[in-house]
Amino acid sequence: MTEDLEPELPRGIALAWGVAANPQRGPKREMSVERIVEAAVEIADAEGLGAVSMAAVAARLGFTPMSLYRYVNAKEDLILLMQEEATGTPSAAVGEAGGWREQLEALYREQLFNHLAHPWVLDIPISGVPVTPNLAAWMDAGLGALAETHLTHEERLAVMLFVSGAARWAGSILAGYARLERERGLDGPAITRTEDAMFRSLITGDAYPHLRAAIEAGAFLDEADPFAFALARGLDGIGDYIAAAAEGRHDAGIPWQLPDDADIADDKRYREARKSVREAEKVLRAARKAERQEARAARDRRAKQNPAG
Amino acid sequence: MTEDLEPELPRGIALAWGVAANPQRGPKREMSVERIVEAAVEIADAEGLGAVSMAAVAARLGFTPMSLYRYVNAKEDLILLMQEEATGTPSAAVGEAGGWREQLEALYREQLFNHLAHPWVLDIPISGVPVTPNLAAWMDAGLGALAETHLTHEERLAVMLFVSGAARWAGSILAGYARLERERGLDGPAITRTEDAMFRSLITGDAYPHLRAAIEAGAFLDEADPFAFALARGLDGIGDYIAAAAEGRHDAGIPWQLPDDADIADDKRYREARKSVREAEKVLRAARKAERQEARAARDRRAKQNPAG
DNA sequence: AACACACTGTTTATGGAATAAACAGTCTTA
DNA sequence: TAAGACTGTTTATTCCATAAACAGTGTGTT
Question: Does residue A34 lie within 7 Å of nucleic acid chain C, judged by its CB?
Fold first, then answer.
């Protein structure tokens, strides 16, 4: 029965755990899965996941594209192994970093660092529970940080999920900026300034009053780290919760589920009203668009009659 | 000067704001950008972003692939417009939902709902600040929810970023499960059980003590919503912070930046030690792999000699 | 010792993708 | 009425992943 499970493992996952049959006969192998994955990761680090083609990886190793398929069943498996390689494991320092909060902060930092070093990992869609050795290692480290608390196992999972999510979210945004910098060939401040200028020209005070106010307050030019702020607030809340758990009081209506709007969302009339709003918005957008185009056309015409520019 | 900015807008963004020149001469247009985007969104909703090819979109409208390029400069632009379409705007109900916390929760719920309805949006990489009309609308709604608080504009942005990130993270994971269900043709509980079984067979107590403990406590079979938990804790922490801001006390060492490890990470010897650890881990993994393969081979041999199975 | 055949990396071929370039037809405007 | 801006189309290019058939190579079995 236990044996029956192994062959059912998705092929890539079996490879990641090193449970793939090793051939005994035939010519000596000239490559290895490890070398292939390494080459693929190098390409992805340098040029992004899009640049990782079977041909490119093979070329980097001096072989023909099809040769890789003797080691990897499909590109999908290669990508899973790349992710595993780039994910690595948390450093030993994490487990020795003071209390649960310091440990979680260290995990956040190391994960974020990883995401910035290998931003292409964020382009790989998530499917299901982390079922490779290195992903499990991060999970284990997070749960270990909380082992001394009185949280339930489910709550510990939720907390670790929160930390990983925070690192991933921060990584996504920051990697997005890094990509912009690389693609446009600008440095960080230049990007920020360009964006601020675009924002100022597009975000009007009547359509977006609060956003406009933030722009004018220079909030988008600020250099503070909004992700660190969010993490700190989250850990504050978790700390309160842990303290409450330690004292055995959790009656205070701290909800696991959000208050549900399903009754409203299912209401036919509400849905229709909502639909009307969408339609109206569409009409408004179309009207605004026409207005802008007219303005543009008028300007063009004037320019033609008055070619001074 | 103001005019100079417009032509510098990335093409797709210009389209999203409806600031694209409308041709006056030539034959009547048979399509429109809107119809193209609509068709593309329908395909993505049904079969994922991968199924959206220029050919597929054109076919759905009864035209040849190349015809689309008269309306859209490149596939990238089409995808930006699809994202904008699927993002929509927050409902009016959000702004009327009690205090800041209720409003943020409503925003979270609506965003998550959107992500589940159009999971392919999560496959589109983020680049830079939200610079399309609908993305700006969500941002504005979030800032509006916090308008009554004493937070700075930067802090409000950070809070809204937190909420959007939470919705996105939850959406990513849940959409991952939904995809698994569709691809494997299993229902939710079946997936959960399969994963639990895989976990039990792969996650050993000595390599992953805390994770193993969580598995045995049945934490992965639990049905509570870990994302709602994380959001609730985050909003708890934000609530404390807001209360403190209202009383003008923010001295308490609430850090915007995480305590920095850069001095450690830059230390040459630390880096070398870390590298050694990685190497050692690699060796360990290889050894474990060999062990497993030997076990497997031995089992195979025995099975061959003893074909009773 | 010899042979079968499991295995190697390679060649060739298929189908799909984005999109550049050139085309013939259509409608506006000068 | 003619130029030419604009339409949707055709054709061709380049890049993908990968299936299938190939000729060598080394091991286990006889």
Answer: no
Provide the CA B48 to C1' D9 distance, Å, integer.
28
Closest residue of B to A236, CA-based? B237
**Start-end of H helices in B133-225:** 133-145, 153-184, 188-202, 209-216
- Considering only the beta carbons, identify the residue of B125, B180, B209 that sits closest to A123: B125
**CB-strand contact A63/C, under 7 Å:** yes
Q: Which nucleotides of D are covered by protein (CB under 7 A)?
A: 4-11, 15-21, 24-28
Contact between B149 and A153 under an 8 Å Cβ cutoff? The reply is no
Strand stretches in chain A, DSSP E? none
Does the pLDDT value for residue A5 go beyond 90?
no
Q: How confident is the model at residue A143 (pLDDT cuts 50, 70, 90)?
A: very high
Which pLDDT score, from 0 to 100, does residue B254 have? 43
Convert the pLDDT of each residue in A33-51 to its tens digit. Answer: 999 999 999 999 999 999 9
Structure-model confidence comparison of residues B154 and A95, the more confident one: B154
Q: Shortest CA distance to A144 belongs to which of B273, B212, B202?
A: B212
Q: Could you tell me the distance in Å between the CA of residue B285 and the C1' of nucleotide C4?
A: 36
Q: Which of residues 19-38 of B touch strand D (CB under 7 A)?
A: 23-31
Rounded distance between C-alpha atoms, residue B164 and residue B219, angstroms: 26
Q: How far is B3 from chain A (nearest CA, A)?
A: 10
Read off the tokens for A309. 């520019």
CB of A242 closer than 8 Å to CB of A150: yes
Closest-CA distance of chain B to residue A184, Å: 11
Q: Check if residue B63 sits with its Cβ under 7 angstroms from strand D.
A: yes
Distances (CA, A) of A86 to A61, A271, A307: 19, 45, 58
User: Six-digit token pair at A256?
Assistant: 């696991």
Three-state SS for A160?
helix
Tokens of A82: 């790349």
B18, A292 Cβ separation under 8 angstroms:
yes
Task: Say if the Cβ atoms of B210 and A166 lie within 8 Å.
Answer: no
Separation CA A273–CA A286 (nearest Å): 20
Q: Is B195 exposed, middle or buried (0-12, 13-18, 19+ CB in 10 A)?
A: middle
Return the biggest CA–CA distance within chain B.
86
- A131/B199 touch (CB, cutoff 8 Å), yes or no: yes
Give the CB-side neighbour count of residue B149, counting CA atoms within 13 A: 26
- Specify the pTM: 0.87
Distance CA A103, CA A90 (A): 11
pLDDT in tens, A145-198: 999 999 999 999 999 999 999 999 999 999 998 888 887 778 888 888 888 888
Q: Which of B226, B119, B223 is nearest to B175 (CA)?
A: B119
Residue A179 with chain B: CB contacts under 8 Å: 125, 127
Q: Which two tokens stand for residue A47?
A: 């040029």
For B10, list phi and psi in degrees, rounded to 5: -50, 140
